Structure to design on (656 residues):
């Protein structure tokens, strides 16, 4: 809801700027009465949106909001580190039962804090900070419980953390928690896939292919589940899901030995370079443009460029003079720019 | 969702903890699956970390029948690997074997740990036999007396300080492992990870060999009620570390010159997860000189 309100406020601000421009060029001239009525109407709408949803109504406010978001994220990271080190600093002086009580109380307290922060403050900066701390404390809770009682490690903890983060994300509309929950889920899926047929589950990090199916599933979630209450969530699913596909492909395109496939390393690397670098990223760029998913287009373009530059480095860095290498890099960037420009022109023609 | 979110999130925390603690209770309820009496040789104090007040003991173990501590046991060959679930269908001499086995994944299984039993006795016997053979080589002037002295000192240090805990068997079914090793005061079962590799030396006789990558729970937490003596050792070590007039470094590791400093009773539960039952001090043993050289052999030491 807040995202929708913010979009409305942005539209009003853009409309005002365009109106000023049109009046300056003499294309449109409103009477003084019309202008006053329009301004009053927009002022009233903006005040209402700010009162109900605490949206940013000016460019300066928007910049400040970004600063607050970054401060909130960094603050949460620092608090998580503080909670971790605080516990390890004192846990040796506590009895086992006291350790367990503190470990359980931590996530419970910060979950309650998230709830009350979300009720008191509509911008959700403090709620987001408290929710991240709740997740960090919950991770610490189960991990340390495993250490205290010498429990055999299990991937199920990743599923529990994922469920917890997703519940907080959907309850309070927190995108950062959604991303955390999805990452834990991808980790769980990777570990479960690796753990089939008695394989030691913790080796899931050694085989990047474990994550591709999970990434694909996550990418498809917004197609299967509508998000009318959280329209800002589908881009997060697409972004994290695509990362779950692109990162393994990037690794396999450079280190074929980490693949499940019983093929020569060079064949695997070549296959992933073509399949991932060319086909997959081109397809994703096309889908992103066609569906209007900006995040998909941006990430796919970045992935394509990174993969290309990494391969250039592999092929030419050792034997090519450095000036020539960077010259080719620059030329490649120009070629990509030209291609993207043509693509942009094509979409503009279609839109018109 | 906001109203339901709070109770669901709180419930998840409580439920996850309940499940974990129920598992702990199930592990330790009833009779322990095994109880081993170990010493500092098998359970070493973890490193001192300034920002961590917890104490844990690190399990030190060897593999029976593994020459020279390579952890590559002769009994852990193709037959045992197949029993553990590894796909060994490609003959080691096949040209595609290298690629096939390089991609083999590590598998989780159960290891049988034996404390101060036949595996330890076999290790001592094998080492003594090796020293005798070396003494004969010295007599034939194929090796120098200094080589022999060095080997004897190495053996003596290992005999007095090395862990006597050996992995003697592996299997996916803990019940059948327990049937094969019924003595619960000597054998403990624990989750372990095994990997497979293709040994291509000698090149004309390549073979499959297994390696025990890790014992899954090898760092064992010591609860506050059982760590008083370990705290004293730790404080002493810290004092020594911080002292400007610290004694010169000996060839022994800390606490080994007078033998192990503590005894630990380690219980293993129904889920094969360990816990520390007790930690007791051990009387220091006067440091005995290293073994004398065999009669008639010149050790190369300066004569008086």
């Amino acid at each position: 809801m807040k995202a929708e309100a913010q979009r409305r406020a942005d539209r009003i601000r853009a409309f005002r700027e365009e109106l000023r421009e049109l009046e300056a060029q003499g294309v449109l001239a409103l009477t003084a009465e019309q202008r006053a009525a329009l301004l009053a109407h927009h002022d009233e709408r903006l005040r209402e949106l700010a009162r109900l949803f605490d949206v940013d109504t000016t460019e300066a406010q928007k910049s400040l909001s970004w600063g607050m978001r970054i401060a909130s994220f960094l603050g949460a990271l620092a608090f998580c580190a503080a909670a971790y080190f605080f516990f390890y600093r004192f846990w040796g002086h506590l009895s086992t039962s006291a350790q367990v009580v503190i470990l359980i109380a931590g996530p419970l307290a910060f979950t309650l804090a998230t709830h009350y922060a979300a009720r008191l403050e509509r911008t959700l900066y403090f709620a987001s900070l408290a929710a991240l701390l709740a997740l960090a404390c919950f991770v610490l809770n189960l991990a340390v419980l495993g250490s205290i009682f010498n429990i055999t490690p299990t991937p199920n903890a990743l599923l529990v953390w994922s469920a917890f983060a997703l519940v907080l994300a959907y309850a309070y509309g927190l995108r950062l928690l959604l991303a955390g929950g999805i990452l834990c889920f991808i980790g769980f899926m990777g570990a479960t896939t690796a753990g089939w047929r008695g394989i030691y589950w913790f080796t899931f990090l050694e085989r990047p292919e474990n994550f591709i199916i999970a990434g694909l599933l996550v990418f498809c979630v917004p197609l299967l589940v509508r998000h009318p209450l959280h329209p800002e969530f589908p881009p997060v699913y697409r972004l994290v899901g695509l990362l779950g596909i692109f990162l393994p492909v990037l690794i396999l395109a450079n280190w074929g030995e980490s693949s499940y496939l019983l093929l020569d390393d060079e064949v695997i690397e070549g296959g992933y370079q073509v399949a991932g670098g060319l086909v997959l990223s081109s397809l994703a760029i096309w889908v992103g443009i066609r569906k209007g998913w900006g995040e998909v287009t941006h990430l796919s373009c970045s992935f394509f460029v990174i993969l290309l530059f990494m391969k250039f480095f592999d092929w030419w860095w050792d034997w090519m003079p450095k000036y020539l290498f960077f010259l080719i890099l620059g030329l490649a960037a120009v070629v990509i720019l030209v291609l993207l420009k043509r693509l942009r022109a094509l979409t503009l023609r279609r839109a018109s | 969702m906001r109203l339901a979110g709070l109770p669901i999130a709180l419930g998840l925390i409580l439920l996850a903890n309940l499940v974990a603690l129920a598992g702990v209770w199930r592990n330790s309820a009833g009779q322990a699956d095994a109880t081993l009496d170990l010493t500092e040789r098998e359970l070493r104090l973890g490193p001192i970390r300034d920002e961590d007040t917890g104490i844990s003991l690190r399990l030190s173990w060897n593999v029976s029948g593994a020459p020279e501590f390579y952890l590559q046991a002769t009994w852990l060959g193709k037959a045992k690997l197949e029993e553990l679930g590894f796909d060994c269908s490609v003959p080691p001499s096949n040209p595609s074997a290298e690629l096939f086995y390089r991609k083999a994944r590590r598998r989780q299984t159960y290891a049988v740990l034996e404390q101060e039993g036949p595996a330890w006795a076999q290790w001592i016997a094998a080492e003594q036999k090796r020293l005798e053979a070396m003494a004969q080589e010295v007599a034939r002037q194929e090796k120098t007396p200094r080589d022999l002295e060095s080997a004897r000192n190495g053996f003596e240090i290992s005999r007095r300080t090395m862990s006597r805990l050996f992995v003697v068997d592996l299997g996916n079914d803990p019940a059948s492992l327990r049937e094969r090793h019924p003595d619960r005061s000597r054998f403990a079962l624990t989750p372990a990870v095994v990997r497979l590799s293709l040994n291509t030396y000698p090149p004309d006789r390549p073979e499959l060999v297994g390696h025990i990558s890790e014992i899954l729970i090898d760092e064992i937490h010591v609860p506050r009620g059982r760590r008083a003596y370990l705290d004293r050792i730790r404080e002493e070590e810290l004092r020594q570390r911080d002292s400007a007039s610290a004694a010169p470094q000996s060839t022994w590791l800390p606490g080994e010159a007078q033998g192990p400093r503590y005894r630990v009773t380690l219980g293993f539960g129904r889920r094969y997860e360990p816990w520390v039952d007790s930690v007791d001090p051990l009387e220091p043993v006067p440091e005995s000189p290293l073994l004398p050289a065999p009669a008639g052999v010149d050790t190369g030491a300066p004569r008086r």
In short: Chain A touches chain B through 55 residues (CB under 8 Å).
